[in-house]
Amino acid sequence: MTSSARVVVFAYHEVGFRCLAWLLARGATVSAVFTHEDNPRERVWFRSVADLARAAGAPVLVPSSLKDPALVARIREWRPDVIYSFYYRNMIPREILAIPPAGAFNMHGSLLPRYRGRVPVNWAIIHGERETGATLHHMVGRADAGDIVDQEACAIGPADTARDVFLKVTDAAVKVLARSHEAIVEGRAPRRPQNESEATTFGGRGPEDGRIEWDRDAASIFNFVRALTEPYPGAFSEVRGQRFVIWWGRPVDLPESERLAPGRVVSVEPLIVATRDGGFRVERLEWASAVAPEGRKFITGERVG
User: Fold this and answer.
1) Cα distance between residue 67 and residue 219, in whole Å
2) 168 has which bridge partners?
3) Which of 9, 62, 80, 184 is the most exposed place for a label (fewest CB within 10 A)?
4) Contact 299, 240 (CB under 8 A)
5) Where in the sequence of the chain do the CATH 3.10.25.10 domains occur?
6) So what's the architecture of 207-295 in CATH?
């Protein structure tokens, strides 16, 4: 049944691209692909689900809402055996989830029940996790809360960026899909209830959530920087009202005689900013475009924040 299974896919981002590519290579009949328009304010570093679907001859839909009764009726007409969601950013209504006889399944970028919600990879790095992964689960009316089908873990290296980890999670997602697809379309997908006592949930992040809190320890600031560095908007701070983005840096130990209050500039060359437990050496920064050259200077002892 796997080669002839009718599938409707909701997908975006690199996970969406890779999982859709796997389904197409497997011979699944992709009746339609729902995706998103790229946001011009977002740095798009991942491959296009829409382009992949069109190249395969699958209809591509980018609706503003999934609640249109005509759209729900159209999905019913396609008679999908299964619905997949691979990093699709909107909640899929219950009316749609109930359509396929084999069920509806979502691929989430964490080891559920931990890190439910938005941008789980970035949050895991911010919190200093050493492991994350991909989870395929039954979709229910509540986000990321359905029974687990399968999971694959991957390591978060001590200097991994969010992009590094996201690519590992993408590889894990494809492995999970490959292990699970046949059982899903045959109606025998495993069900392992999530332990609600272990669940954590986090919201989305925007560029303005990237302000560095210098009164934290240097390791936490490093995690924050690597979680937000390119291709994400970056962690930032300000000096004399002028904003700069820190793309990379490292914690440094400082002798007690050199320690200053958190947020104070310890040295200019190299640029080291004091933290709660030492210092953070800034190795790559970028000033806001509106800052004049004479304003792009630091003074030992002054505060950034």
Assistant:
1) 45
2) none
3) 62
4) no
5) 207-295
6) Roll (3.10)
Enter the CATH code of domain 6-202: 3.40.50.170
Pinpoint the residues of the chain covered by CATH 3.40.50.170: 6-202
Answer yes or no: are the C-beta atoms of 162 and 137 closer than 8 Å.
no
197 token code pair: 């006592």
pLDDT band at residue 1 using 50, 70 and 90 as cut-offs: very low
- pLDDT per residue as tens digits for the range 86-97: 999 999 999 999
Q: Tell me: the pLDDT tens digits for 33-77?
A: 999 999 888 899 999 999 999 999 999 999 999 999 999 999 999
Q: What are phi and psi of 267, to 5 degrees?
A: -150, 160
| CA 37 to chain centroid | 17
Q: How far apart are CA 108 and CA 192, in angstroms?
A: 15
Helix (H, G, I), strand (E, B) or coil at 116: strand
SS3 72: helix
